[in-house]
Amino acid sequence: MEYYQFMGFGNNGWGRDMLAAAGVSVAVALCGFVFGLIFGCLGAFASLSRARAFRLAASSYTTALRGIPDLLVIYLLYFGSSSVLSMVGELFGSRGFVGAPAFLTGALSLGIVSGAYQTHVLRGAVLSLNKGEIEAGRACGMSSFLLFRRIVLPQAARYALPGVGNVWQLVLKESALISVIGLAELMRQAQVGSGSTNQPFSFYLTAAALYLLITFVSGQAFRIAEARGVRGLRRSI
Question: In CATH, which of 3.20.20.70, 3.50.50.60, 1.10.3720.10, 3.30.1360.200 is domain 28-183?
Fold first, then answer.
């Protein structure tokens, strides 16, 4: 059977399955990225806090999550939460292993890992702000919330955008690791298809092409966002 027949949309083609799996990959990566952004904001706030305990907690979080392999984080979260669910199930008369939801577990795993990287990105963006503008805002009588909304947030977001875009690309690639816990994302679907047809090269080549397409489109979106973020700024010569 020719390649286009394997990846077609007919009765014997795997095209729809591969596209659906690519959609699952984007969805879990996007959820993981959002979770990571939340963890990153909390981590950046803690690392910039005057409280030593907060700074120590943020440093421990980023050091541990950047040092532990991502696959190990997925295993720990999946089997750890599954063990808790199994024990809870036994209290209600259930017997056997109760698996945690693969999509939620995968998204949280990606979020926890990417949050460690986003912590440093966001922290660096805040430290890059012009202190004079913040002092001027305080001199004008701005409250802390108004100062954050009008001065800190818009500029920090502009500085952080390139780094956040790189983290998104990292999360997208790491989403392939979630196949180990049974989520039918792109890599898992390629494995199933190659095992069913004995055509691994065709399926993995298609998966690579789809990953590259998603990466290219999202990269262009971040470039447009970066260009819009610097509109109206004076450029140095």
Answer: 1.10.3720.10
Residue 44 phi, psi dihedral angles, 5° rounding: -65, -40
Query: Beta-carbon neighbour count of residue 94 at 10 Å?
Result: 13
Query: Is 51:59 a contact under the CB 8 Å cutoff?
Result: no
Model confidence pLDDT, tens digit, residues 15-24? 888 999 999 9
Strand stretches in the chain, DSSP E: none
CA angle 139, 47, 69 (to 5 degrees): 150
Token pair of 12 as six digits: 């014997």
Q: What does the pLDDT look like over 124-150, one tens digit per residue?
A: 988 888 777 777 877 787 777 777 777
